[in-house]
Amino acid sequence: MATAEPDINSNPPQPSEDGPEETGQEVVSPESYIKHPLQNRWSLWFFKNDKSKTWQANLRLISKFDTVEDFWALYNHIQLSSNLLSGCDYSLFKDGIEPMWEDERNKRGGRWLITLNKQQRRQELDRFWLETLLCLVGEAFDDYSDEVCGAVVNIRTKGDKLAIWTADYENRDAITHIGYVYHTYRESV
To answer: 132 and 181 in contact (C-beta within 8 Å)?
Structure first.
């Protein structure tokens, strides 16, 4: 079997003045494939009220994410909250915190609650829920973001509810700041 030896006398191709040699491959900058990390890892939960099961059996972990890109990938592939059946919930909590008051991180906590009437579901629910999610993953609560455990949207026949859950009801400065930012952010968008 004959092998070809490299021709050491030939000159390698030189790049043109227009840029790198045409190889049929696109040059990709690192910024296009490096994901943007979030400050926390988050877990999305789904609750579907099936009366034949226990409350905990109705609660399912959907996915976890810790980058901006993974948040949007998940958000764009789940059902909008306004399309969920009555009795269903979405919950977004920091990883390691379950969306129930019995969880150790929620026991001493409280919540900021927004109630919507039935007519607001089609016009405002999805926007309010997305704004709530962006407040959480974007750490919009400044120095008090650590005091936020998560958020829940409840779809109910009489009207829907959105809530941000906080860690410690006795931390008045944090609770007040979180409520102020959440209300202000919602109003400004």
So the answer is: no
